[in-house]
């Protein structure tokens, strides 16, 4: 017995040593193929050192460029991922994959960015089919040459699943059957062909072992698998994002799939309008996804009788017909993002446990829902435009009594109507018994109508004795916040109007001028209280812009002050008193002058000091009721250049006669005669005798007075 045990142990050790030696040989050859630069750097002596130093593990984040121009994305004992496969390196790839015969530990292969001819692509598939690889994924495939018939050998394979995504065929003219039959007859459990613009797929030639088919995001139509009875083991079929249009044809497609349990037809163009068309679904089908299609209420007449989970979100369903066929096995129903106006009853869904009706048009859900659906454990009804009313309050109360089945409560349940309650969560919404009990409300109103005399105001005194039926207050009187907001708005409007008028009429400027005139009068009264009566000293005060001073000095003053009947003029350069402010000098000169002559020109309206002089002269005109203004238009003034604050000047020129300086010399004699006549007056002799003394001026005062 002991001898037999020793022999058995030695035999087992020999087997293990043989397997280890074989695997080291294969691994070493693979590493030398993929990373020759790494292995060549190792010392030639000592094979043990070389084996121990081989990089046996490369994680997903690491990429290495081999001498064959492909990129190694992952290289482990059980997984290999390569990229950039072309016609130049495909034969070396086939040679590499040939090393992994059945019994090898490599099980997962991923190829990305593959651009090869049809025959080279088939040779890759054929090599993989007879290797140890069980899960093969190939992404971003471009087939370059003509598609032609290929005798594919499916025998002796370890393959379980094939995934192909983003396949592009450049050949425009080829037999479709040659291409599709290669994949239709594959003897594997799972096949995925996605995002490849595939327009059809053949029915397998014999009973297929397919249990999982995924044709996501292609161009498949209602012709797929019609009258196909070879997919008897198929359990999962995904046809999402294709171009299916007829729901009855889809049902007919599944009628021969005896093992089908899950079908995904979401994001297609499915419709079902004809009520007389019969639907023939696979009896084994228990889960169906028809979301994001164009289905209406008639879809409930074309559903599998044994369905347990049904997804109909994002369609055009307005309600569940009462005469629909009963779905006794249905446990989960998704009707979100449709056009439902109320919760569906459970007359046809006696086993329903989960219902989703979010994002519909439900204003007031029926309160009898919980009575008709006693088995429902979870109701998702949030994000609907709820109308907060007595009926909705009854629904919430019954839901609380049933144990709280609302999913997403309370954040997803918010009032949309009426507007004064918009945004209020349903948990915070309450109405009194009187508001919700119609009979009680009618009785109360009737009592108030029959005996109004018993309901009389006592306070306040001005309403004492008024019956309540005749008492009314406005909303503004009862709402303090509304009253405050209204008062604030009126105040702001009034302030804005006053500010606008002040700015438009230049009120601040006039206030400032009035203040200066008042201060000047006050100082004069304070310094000489006994000399309040003003005595005229000049025939006229001249107001002009400094830019027009040449005309004043060369024409106006010489013609008025010389010759017979000379006129005594007040000019700021000669008659302003040193030490006094400019404004005070202007006021004194205007008040001591019989007339005020204003030399008008475009320069005049641009001068701030001229505006002051015009203002004080105009003030004298009204205060003394005198005709003391003489206007000389030296140059025409375009109306658009007159500032807004010169509205007094505009009024004077519109209502009063003014003298216009003639350009022709022959008319100037008449101009001077008219001007002398306008200012003709005899001044007191005491002031004429002191003419020379009053001409003394201050240089500093003159320099301050600048007309711009």
Features:
single chain, 708 residues, alpha/beta, 15-stranded mixed sheet, 5-stranded parallel sheet, 34% helix, 14% strand, Toll-like receptor, LRR_dom_sf
Could you write a compact summary of the structure shown?
By secondary structure, the chain is of the alpha/beta class. 34% of the residues lie in helices and 14% in strands.
Structure description:
- Helices cover 34% and strands 14% of the residues.
- It is α/β, with parallel strands linked by helices.
- It is elongated and about 140 Å long.
- The longest helix is centred in the first third of the chain and has 33 residues, at 2-34.
- The chain is built from 23 helices and 22 strands.
- Strands 1-2-3-4-5-6-7-8-9-10-11-12-13-14-15 form a 15-stranded mixed sheet, with helices on one face. It has a five-stranded parallel sheet with strand order 19-18-20-21-22, sandwiched between helices. A two-stranded parallel ribbon has the order 16-17.
State the shape: elongated
Q: Residue-averaged pLDDT, rounded?
A: 78
Estimate what percentage of residues fall within beta strands.
5-15%
The quaternary state of the protein chains shown equals single chain
What ranges have pLDDT less than 50 throughout 5 or more consecutive residues? 12-62, 686-708
Largest sheet entry = 15 strands, mixed
Sheet with the most strands: spatial strand order: 1-2-3-4-5-6-7-8-9-10-11-12-13-14-15
Structural class: alpha/beta
Quantity of strands, as a count: 22
Distance between termini? 133 Å
Number of helices: 23
Helix content: 25-40%
Cα gyration radius (Å): 53 Å
């Amino acid at each position: 017995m002991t001898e037999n045990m020793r022999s058995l142990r030695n035999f087992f050790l020999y087997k293990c040593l043989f397997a280890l030696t074989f695997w080291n040989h294969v691994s070493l050859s693979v590493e030398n193929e993929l990373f020759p630069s790494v292995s060549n750097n190792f010392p030639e002596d000592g094979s043990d050192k070389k084996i121990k130093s081989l990089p046996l593990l490369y994680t997903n984040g690491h990429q290495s460029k081999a001498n064959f121009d492909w990129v190694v994305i992952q290289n482990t004992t059980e997984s290999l991922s390569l990229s950039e496969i072309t016609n130049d390196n495909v034969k070396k790839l086939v040679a590499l994959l040939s090393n992994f015969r059945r019994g090898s530990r490599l099980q997962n292969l991923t190829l990305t960015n593959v651009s090869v001819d049809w025959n080279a692509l088939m040779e890759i598939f054929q090599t993989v089919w007879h290797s140890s690889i069980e899960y093969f994924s190939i992404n971003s495939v471009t087939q370059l040459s003509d598609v032609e018939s290929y005798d594919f050998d499916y025998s002796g394979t370890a393959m379980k699943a094939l995934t192909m995504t983003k396949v592009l065929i450049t050949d425009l003219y080829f037999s479709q059957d040659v291409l599709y039959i290669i994949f239709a007859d594959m003897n594997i459990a799972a096949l995925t062909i996605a995002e490849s613009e595939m327009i059809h797929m053949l029915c397998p030639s014999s009973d297929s072992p397919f249990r999982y088919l995924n044709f996501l995001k292609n161009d498949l139509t209602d012709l797929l698998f019609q009258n196909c009875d070879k997919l008897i083991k198929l359990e999962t079929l995904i046809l999402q994002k294709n171009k299916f249009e007829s729901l009855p044809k889809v049902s007919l497609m599944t009628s021969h799939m005896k093992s089908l349990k899950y079908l995904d037809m979401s994001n297609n163009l499915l419709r079902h309008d004809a009520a007389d068309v019969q639907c023939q679904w696979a009896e084994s089908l228990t889960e169906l996804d028809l979301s994001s299609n164009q289905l209406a209420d008639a879809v409930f007449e074309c559903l599998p009788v044994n369905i347990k989970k049904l997804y109909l979100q994002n369609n055009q369903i307005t309600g569940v017909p009462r005469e629909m066929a009963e779905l006794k096995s249905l446990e989960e129903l998704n009707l979100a993002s449709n056009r439902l106006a109320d919760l569906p009853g459970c007359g046809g869904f006696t086993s329903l446990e989960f219902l989703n009706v979010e994002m519909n048009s439900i204003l007031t859900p029926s309160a009898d829902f919980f009575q008709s659906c006693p088995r429902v454990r979870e109701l998702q009804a949030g994000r609907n435009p709820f109308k907060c009313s007595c009926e909705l309050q009854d629904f919430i109360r019954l839901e609380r009594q049933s144990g709280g089945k609302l999913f997403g409560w309370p954040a997803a349940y918010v009032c949309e109507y009426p507007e004064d309650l918009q945004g209020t969560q349903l948990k915070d919404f309450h109405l009194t018994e009187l508001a919700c009990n119609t009979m009680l409300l009618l009785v109360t109103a009737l009592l108030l109508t029959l005996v109004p005399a018993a309901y009389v105001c006592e306070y306040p005194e001005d309403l004492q004795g008024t019956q309540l039926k005749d008492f009314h207050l406005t909303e503004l009187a009862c709402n303090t916040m509304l009253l405050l907001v209204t008062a604030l708005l009126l105040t702001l409007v009034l302030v804005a109007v006053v500010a606008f008028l002040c700015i438009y009429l230049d009120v601040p400027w006039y206030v400032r001028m009035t203040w200066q005139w008042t201060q000047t009068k006050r100082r004069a009264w304070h310094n000489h209280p006994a000399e309040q009566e003003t005595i005229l000293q000049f025939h006229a005060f001249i107001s002009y812009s400094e830019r027009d001073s040449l005309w004043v000095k060369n024409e106006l003053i010489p013609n008025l002050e010389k010759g017979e009947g000379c006129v005594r003029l007040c000019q700021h350069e000669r008659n302003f008193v040193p030490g006094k402010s400019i404004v005070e000098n202007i006021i004194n000169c205007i008040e001591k002058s019989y007339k005020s002559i204003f030399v008008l020109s475009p320069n005049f309206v641009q001068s701030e000091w001229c505006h002051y002089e015009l203002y004080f002269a105009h003030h004298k005109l009204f205060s003394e009721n005198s005709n003391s203004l003489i206007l000389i238009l030296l140059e025409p003034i375009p109306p658009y250049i007159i500032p807004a604050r010169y509205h007094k000047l505009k009024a004077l020129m519109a209502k009063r006669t003014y003298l216009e300086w003639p350009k022709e010399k022959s008319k100037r004699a008449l101009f001077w005669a008219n001007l002398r006549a306008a200012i003709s007056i005899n001044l007191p002799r005491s002031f004429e005798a002191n003419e020379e003394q009053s001409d003394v001026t201050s240089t500093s005062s003159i320099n301050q007075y600048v007309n711009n």
